[in-house]
Amino acid sequence: MLISAGCSGNLTYGDIIHHMPVTPTQSPETILNTVFGYQEYKPLQREVIQNVLSQRDTLAIMPTGGGKSLCYQIPALLSPGLTVVVSPLIALMKDQVEQLDALGVPALFLNSSLSFDDYQVNMLLVRSGEIKLLYVAPETLLSPRTLNLLESVTLSCLTIDEAHCISEWGHDFRPEYRQIAQVRKRFPQAVCLALTATATDRVRQDIKDTLAFQDDNEFVASFNRENLMIEVLPKTDPGGQTLAFLQRFPDQSGIIYCFSRKQVDDLTAFLSTKGFSVRAYHAGLSDHERKTNQEDFIRDDVQIIVATIAFGMGINKPNVRFVVHYDLPKSIESYYQEIGRAGRDGLPAHCLLLYSYADVAKLRYFIDQKAESERQVAYLHLNALTNYAESSMCRRVPLLAYFGEKYDDEPCGACDNCLKANDEPEDITIAAQKFLSCVKRTGERFAATHIAHVLLGTDNEKVLKYRHQELSTFGIGKEFTRKQWLHIAQQLIQKGLLEQSNDLYRTLRLTPKGSEVLRSREPVLGIVPQAEKTAAARKKAGEMAYDRDLFALLREKRKDLADAAHVPPYVIFSDRTLVEIAAYYPLTPDSLKRINGIGQVKLERYGDILLDLVQGFCRERGLEEKLPRKGGEARPTRQAVGKPRHVIVAEAYNAGQSISDLMQEYGVKRGTIIDHLAAFTQDGNALRQSEDFLSMLDLPGEQQEAALQAFEQLGSKFLKPVFEQLGGAATYDDLKILRLHFLSSRK
To answer: Distance (Å, rounded) from C-alpha 307 to C-alpha 280?
Structure first.
């Protein structure tokens, strides 16, 4: 007898009872460990679970990857009756049921993907009273057939996932969601839990008003996703920029979002010709093709999905390592939700947004076609998004502020603005002249990417075709990377030194002001972003060191097990679980139980297979087990403990690591480490005094003293006042070091 239309195989009624892993007398913490394999809760999970178990209606706002599912799954296993989960997409239901099945939890779904016979069988199983979790679409819930079914059983909890769909002020309003309030009245004995990852203050209030919730039963976790590297780049050569970005993530899963179906098809075809494992997803494809492409992506048979925003809401694939917005999303909520599909396993992931004024103009055009009543909200969303993209502050400040959260841990160390080499303008006159000269010498007929290739001395087909390798500017710009040159180009456009055409080719030409700078050597100030790290140095700060060879073997074995069970690989184990195994080499069942994500059922099903593989690997290489500490302290990143990056760096410095050591470990320049240490001291913390910061300077002693006196007089929060008082005698880099000496010596 089928319990779902998922690919987990045919289970009998007896199987469901046999695999029921808990009894209502157990504690939530016991279930967390024995069923789900976790050693500790994520923020607010404990509070939400206890509130639901106390029969209090609850609104929980938790970030993607924050563990919303456990907030109703654990109470479901401790409640006497059925928990119904209202979910907007079939794919999400199927995914959740497959994962619960792998844990031995009796769950199923009812939706239009089921055949008539399977639908009837699943309804019988619900009536039997042995099913603990039932997933339904809002339309299914509202049907008389489903309502009559629920009246025949004990309904313990009504869970509303993606609850922002209730609100007309949300980015994904669905009228049928508002009708769920009527279902609540029909089942007053059932506690109600509403969950979402994206909700402003206004949307949260609308949800509570609609569902008649009390304000004191609202739980709002931090919206900050520390493991996400957030980057916004000027959109100069989107195809080339995307290609360069993807080359940094070989054999990794990722999603690229485009505005239109045509753009999806064109980019998919382009990436396919470059050898990438890629598929398209949009509403113009047949249902069969969409479903096949999505399944292949989920099962790691395809690495990259290029999609319109229709893709991803029902995807719980935890090992998405990057999300690219090839075009501008429609709102901050959409953007946050879409980047939230990266790094759900807690491991580092990268989110890139390509931003252009042309995309903004395109969205404004479509907004103008809307009804007057819809325009106001759409423009509010667009303005918030453009302000975010054009901001020079830490990306997390405006992003979290949109959801009503204040972020105080600048620099975050995981966004493009915080990782720039300097937070103050520097003299880029020579670089500007090189770029302007190259634009002039190539005939003012080419885009910024081609100019960068000439400056870097790249002898590609286009450079050779136009014989630009013979120009005097060929190869004179190797001090910067391609990305840095493109950033410089964008600043020259913004300063009015260059004009960029609005057509497809985005060609550059000098303005009269640019020609004057080229002739007169007039100073040009700008910001040069930190250079890209090399592959060897690109390791994310705090990432757990693990055996790459063992991890590769574990991934291969996981794929074999997943294919045999007809489920996605992450249903078997997440990447996070494999990383911890590859870090700690567990050699016994007891050791394996201490790995995140391995509960009792998974230990019984796969423990011997894992132990055989790890034991053989260690035996061949003479490796010993490295037991994680008790209490579940094995984590793939130090950031998981919630410390800001500057605190992590400073504590490592205080523990004895030198600035050179920290530069090498984090793959950053000295200035970045200096920034982290300064932030630590400005928080009121002390640094050890073994490092002579002044020895890093070539500045004469009298100028050093003048700078220190200026800091005493003007304060140390901003460098510009000190720079101006000294008349530019000290560079901003010098002032950063002097500020650190000033702050540390005052403790």
So the answer is: 6
The encoded tokens of residue 434 equal 């090189």
Find tokens 């004057």 and name the residue.
516
Q: What is the pLDDT of residues 215-260, one digit of tens each?
A: 778 888 888 888 899 999 988 889 989 998 998 888 899 999 998 8
Whose structure tokens read 């563990």? Answer: 67
Residue 582 within a domain? yes
Residues 472-498 as b or e (16 or more Cβ within 10 Å = b)? ebbebbeebbbbbbbbbbbbbbebebb
Per-residue DSSP letter, 304: E
Residue 414 lies in a domain: no
Instruction: Give the Cα separation of 204 and 218 in Å (integer).
Output: 9
Residue 721, CA distances (Å) to 577, 693, 694, 711 in order:
50, 21, 21, 9
Q: For 362-411, what is each residue's pLDDT tens digit? A: 888 888 888 887 787 888 888 888 888 887 778 998 898 888 888 877 67
Query: Taking a C-beta distance cutoff of 8 angstroms, is the pair 253, 301 a contact?
Result: no
CA–CA gap between residue 440 and residue 578 (Å, rounded): 54
Q: Which of 607, 638, 669 is the last residue of a domain?
A: 638
Name the residue range of residue 293's domain.
Answer: 228-402
CA distances from 62 to 43, 223, 554 (A): 9, 7, 31
Which position has the token pair 């099903």?
Answer: 605
Say which CATH number the domain at 144 has: 3.40.50.300
Distance CA 425, CA 491 (A): 11
Residue 501 and residue 599 in one domain: no
- Within 60-115, residue ranges assigned H as helices are 70-78, 90-102
Number of other CB atoms surrounding residue 242 within 10 Å = 21
Same domain, 176 and 65: yes
Q: For 627-661, what is each residue's pLDDT tens digit? A: 654 433 333 333 333 456 677 788 877 777 777 77
**pLDDT tens profile 448-505:** 889 999 999 988 888 999 999 999 999 999 989 887 898 788 789 878 899 987 554 6
Residue 216, Cβ density class (10 Å: 0-12 exposed, 13-18 middle, ≥19 buried): exposed
- How many angstroms separate the CA atoms of 538 and 532, rounded? 8
Q: How many domains does the chain have?
A: 5
Does 633 reside within a domain? yes
Model confidence pLDDT, tens digit, residues 495-531: 889 998 755 467 899 999 999 998 887 888 887 766 5
Final residue of a domain: which of 638, 668, 703?
Answer: 638
Rounded distance between C-alpha atoms, residue 615 and residue 581, angstroms: 11
Q: Does 8 map to a domain?
A: no
User: Which residues have CB under 8 Å from 528's CB, separation 6+?
Assistant: 420, 421, 422, 426, 428, 431, 480, 484, 487, 488
Q: Which amino acid is at 70?
A: L
CA distance 625 to 408: 40
**Could you give the C-alpha distances from 72 to 36, 47, 315, 712, in angstroms and in order?**
13, 12, 18, 55
Classify residue 697 as left (phi > 0), alpha (psi -120 to 50) or beta: beta
Q: Are 267 and 171 found together in one domain?
A: no
* Burial zone of 622 (CB within 10 Å; 0-12 exposed, 13-18 middle, 19+ buried): exposed
The pTM score is 0.61
Q: Minimal CA–CA distance to 172: which of 146, 138, 148, 149? A: 138
- Contact assessment for residue 722 and residue 699, using Cβ atoms and an 8 Å cutoff: no
Which residue type, as a one-letter code, is found at position 734? D
3-state secondary structure of 181: helix
